[in-house]
From TrEMBL:
<feature type="compositionally biased region" description="Low complexity">
    <location>
        <begin position="53"/>
        <end position="65"/>
    </location>
</feature>
<dbReference type="InterPro" id="IPR040079">
    <property type="entry name" value="Glutathione_S-Trfase"/>
</dbReference>
<feature type="region of interest" description="Disordered">
    <location>
        <begin position="374"/>
        <end position="431"/>
    </location>
</feature>
<dbReference type="InterPro" id="IPR026928">
    <property type="entry name" value="FAX/IsoI-like"/>
</dbReference>
<protein>
    <recommendedName>
        <fullName>Failed axon connections</fullName>
    </recommendedName>
</protein>
<dbReference type="GO" id="GO:0005737">
    <property type="term" value="C:cytoplasm"/>
</dbReference>
<dbReference type="Pfam" id="PF17171">
    <property type="entry name" value="GST_C_6"/>
</dbReference>
<comment type="similarity">
    <text>Belongs to the FAX family.</text>
</comment>
<dbReference type="InterPro" id="IPR036249">
    <property type="entry name" value="Thioredoxin-like_sf"/>
</dbReference>
<dbReference type="InterPro" id="IPR036282">
    <property type="entry name" value="Glutathione-S-Trfase_C_sf"/>
</dbReference>
<feature type="region of interest" description="Disordered">
    <location>
        <begin position="1"/>
        <end position="107"/>
    </location>
</feature>
<feature type="compositionally biased region" description="Low complexity">
    <location>
        <begin position="15"/>
        <end position="29"/>
    </location>
</feature>
<feature type="compositionally biased region" description="Basic and acidic residues">
    <location>
        <begin position="377"/>
        <end position="431"/>
    </location>
</feature>
<feature type="compositionally biased region" description="Low complexity">
    <location>
        <begin position="93"/>
        <end position="102"/>
    </location>
</feature>
<feature type="compositionally biased region" description="Low complexity">
    <location>
        <begin position="37"/>
        <end position="46"/>
    </location>
</feature>
<dbReference type="InterPro" id="IPR033468">
    <property type="entry name" value="Metaxin_GST"/>
</dbReference>
<feature type="domain" description="Thioredoxin-like fold">
    <location>
        <begin position="138"/>
        <end position="235"/>
    </location>
</feature>
Length: 431
């Protein structure tokens, strides 16, 4: 391009010719101007050429750069898509995977004596049996009589009188891992839970009479009986034929156990009686108190089978539990209060008998075997026929293939014996 521009002739103008003639120096300058202009034009052309070349080079390089950038962006897009796919896979796997089982809550711990209890079974803790009476405690006998009368499932726990409730009392029950103590509270809570209210048919006045009479029995007449027991502990053991070795589950001789019983029972009983208030009176006064209580009960019962009619109520349960402590005392032991009830209050004796027949059909079994759970059906023992049948089956089994082998061997032995005897006979004949 530079050579092509230099070959173009410069155009001389009239002004340039005139100036050259008038001033040769200026003319020379004027002559040099075209040359400079030509050089400038040539440089400009060169610059244009370089710029064009650079632009062409840039145009040539731009696609490659764009390709590289496009490749990078494509790679980034591919990587992003792959990452998104992995994230979706992880989410899908997490959703498809079964949820981890949450740790089971710790088993509930029950603060009861019967750890392996069954649901809705009432476990009764009371005193041991005696040969004449299911329980020497009127309160224990009251709870068991009520349970039998309303038909609730219960089981006596043979604890040998070692356990007491948290209140320090007997009886108490355990139900579904919960302890309930005090006979009155036991009956109240079970009545509400199982809807077994024996007094639902009574009028308001009858309920009030029942409440007052029960208070007389449990807070007065019972303590009169306890007074006699504390004063004559030896007669308690003899009158109810108590075997302390069996009742307490100890191996010590009864003579030693009886000795300590007389001391401890008499001493503790006397303290309780004085704390109650009945113990400050004389023996004659206390006996008179008891006779008055029995007379009131007899007049209330009159000729009725039960205190409020033909069906027993809570008052009948409590009266039976207390009066049976008097009635079933051995006749060999003198007790004026028992004799008074037998002679002057025969209707009370009849009441005790009716309640016994109604609630304790297994009374004789209880007193004979001293079984705490005679009311629970026992598994039937194996009969003799079953045993004979088993022996017959065994004999039949022996008569199988092994039996046949034995018979064959015996027959062979017999035949061999016969052959040997015949040979001996022949030898003797030849001789």
């Amino acid at each position: 391009m530079a050579s092509e521009v230099a070959q173009i002739p410069s155009e001389e103008t009239p002004a340039a010719v005139a100036a050259s003639t008038e001033n040769p120096t200026a003319a020379a300058a004027e002559q040099e101007k075209p040359a400079a202009a030509e050089e400038n034009a040539q440089a400009a052309a060169t610059n244009k050429e370089d710029a064009a070349a650079n632009k062409q080079q840039e145009n040539e390089n731009a696609p490659a750069a764009n390709k590289e950038e496009g490749g990078k962006s494509q790679e980034n897009a591919t990587a992003g898509a792959a990452a998104d796919g992995e994230a979706k896979k992880d989410d899908a796997a997490a959703a498809a995977a079964p949820a981890k089982a949450e740790p089971a809550p710790p088993a509930q711990k029950f603060n009861v004596h019967k750890a392996n209890f069954e649901k809705d079974i009432i476990y009764l803790y009371q005193f041991s049996r005696t040969p004449l009476l299911p329980s020497l405690s009127p309160y224990c006998l009251k709870v068991e009589t009520w349970l039998r009368l309303v038909g609730l499932k219960y089981e006596n726990v043979d604890h040998k009188m070692r356990f007491r409730s948290k209140k320090g009392q007997l009886p108490f029950i355990e139900l579904n891992g919960e302890e309930i103590a005090d006979s009155a509270i036991i009956i109240k809570e079970l009545s509400a839970k199982y809807e077994k209210n024996l007094d639902s048919g009574l009028t308001a006045e009858q309920r009030n009479v029942s409440y007052a009479t029960i208070a007389m029995l449990e807070n007065h007449l019972i303590w009169i009986i306890f007074y006699w027991r504390a004063k004559y502990p030896d007669n308690v053991l003899k009158g109810y034929k108590v075997n302390l070795q069996h009742a307490l589950g100890l191996r010590l001789p009864n003579s030693i156990l009886n000795f300590f019983f007389k001391i401890t029972f008499g001493r503790k009983g006397t303290k309780k009686l004085k704390a109650h208030g009945i113990g400050v009176h004389s023996a004659e006064e206390i006996e008179e108190f008891g006779k008055n209580d029995l007379k009131v009960l007899s007049e209330m019962l009159d000729c009725k089978p039960f205190f409020f009619g033909d069906e027993p109520t809570t008052l009948d349960v409590v009266a039976f539990a207390v009066l049976s402590q008097l009635h079933y005392l051995s006749k060999d032991i003198a007790y004026p209060l028992r004799d008074y009830m037998t002679e002057k209050c025969p209707n009370l004796i009849g009441h005790v008998s009716r309640m016994k027949d109604k609630c304790f059909p297994d009374w004789d079994e209880i007193c004979t075997k001293l079984d705490l759970n005679a009311h629970i059906p026992k598994p039937e023992p194996e009969t003799k026929e079953g045993k004979e049948g088993g022996e017959q089956e065994k004999s039949n089994e022996q008569e199988g293939p092994d039996g046949d082998k034995i018979e064959k061997e015996l027959e062979k032995d017999k035949s061999n014996e016969k052959e040997s005897t015949e040979e001996n006979k022949e030898k003797e004949e030849t001789k």
